Amino acid sequence: MKPLFTKRPSPNIGLIVFVFASLVLLACEQQALLNPFREMLASVVYPLQQLVSSPTQAVRKFGETFSSRIELLAENEELRREQLLQSAKLTKFAALEQENLRLRGLLDTSFKLGEQVMIAELLAVNLVPYEQVVVVNKGSRFGVYPGQLVMDAHGVVGQVLRVNSLSSEIILITDPNHAIPVQVNRNGLRTIAQGTGQVDRLSLPFLSSNADIQAGDLLVTSGLGGVFPQGYPVATVVAVSGTDNAFAKFAAAPVAKLDLNRELLLVWNKPDPIPRVPDLGSIPKESAGSHAAK
User: Fold this and answer.
1) Which long-range contacts (CB under 8 A, 24 or more apart) does 118-126 make?
2) CB-based contacts of 163: which residues, under 8 Å, 6+ apart?
3) What's the mean per-residue pLDDT of the chain?
4) Cα–Cα distance between 267 and 119 in angstroms, integer?
5) CA atoms within 13 A on the CB side of 19
6) Are residues 150 and 264 in contact, defined by beta-carbon separation less than 8 angstroms?
């Protein structure tokens, strides 16, 4: 038979055992005797730790990846907009730089001319084959008059054809209905340069086959006729053909950049000074209304 009551160890003995074990472990820790066992236990427990924490790490990495993708897309979109804006600004700066160079060239030309000049900007261009006329933003209000000489930084462009109060029409030297007295700068040979309807070509129809003219000769205004002053560059001879018969042909290319200009020089070759431009506030209302209607 089993005894009715079993005798168990006293709790005090168990407490003494645990206290003693704790003291032994503390002593071993002080002497670093448990490090090999700790490393072995860490090696055994590490895979279990990784297995337990892997779902959390996966969720965190997925969130970081998704967030990074959204941020990168937003950053790329912002950089794309900024690049487009900077490209537009650079394009505008390049245009302003070229405009500055053109204006400086015109200013330098005005000093060389030693005459009264005014810069005008193009408003419209009509370069059809049988009419080559441009419109500028200066008119009679600025003292512009019909027949006035018009130049760019390189040479003669044409002359004022019609004048309005705030704008003017300029016929180019290449217009088929335009002719300009010129002379060969090398020997003084005089002739007429006539427009052909092509923006890069003038004809010299009134030269004989034995005329002393050759490719590369510079043609300047002769001053005959009283419209164009003497000595302004007009064109350069580019083609001489048929000089061995009676049907010789001579062609010249304008030195002015007729198809590239945005600004032109209006030249006053009269002794009268340029009239003072009146203020818009001083113009009577009726006159201002008529200007607006025009």
Assistant:
1) 118/142, 118/143, 118/144, 118/265, 118/266, 118/268, 118/274, 119/263, 119/264, 119/265, 119/266, 120/168, 120/263, 120/264, 120/265, 120/266, 121/262, 121/263, 121/264, 122/261, 122/262, 122/263, 122/264, 123/167
2) 139, 140, 144, 145, 146, 169
3) 77
4) 9
5) 6
6) yes
Whole-structure pTM value: 0.58
The position carrying tokens 């009577």 is 284
> Would you place residue 288 in the very low, low, confident or very high pLDDT band (cuts 50, 70, 90)?
very low
Of residues 287, 273, 286, 267, the one with CA closest to residue 138: 267
Query: What is each CA distance from 48 to 34, 42, 278, in whole angstroms?
Result: 22, 10, 94
Count of CB atoms within 10 A of residue 114's CB?
A: 7
Q: Which CATH superfamily, name and number, covers 69-271?
A: Rod shape-determining protein MreC, domain 1 (2.40.10.340)
Helices (H) and strands (E) in the chain, counts: 3, 12
CA atoms within 13 A on the CB side of 185: 15
Coil vs helix vs strand at 23: helix
User: Could you tell me the residue ranges of all domains in the chain?
Assistant: 69-271
Contacts of 198 (CB under 8 A, 6+ apart): 174
Backbone angles phi, psi at 78, to 5 degrees: -65, -45
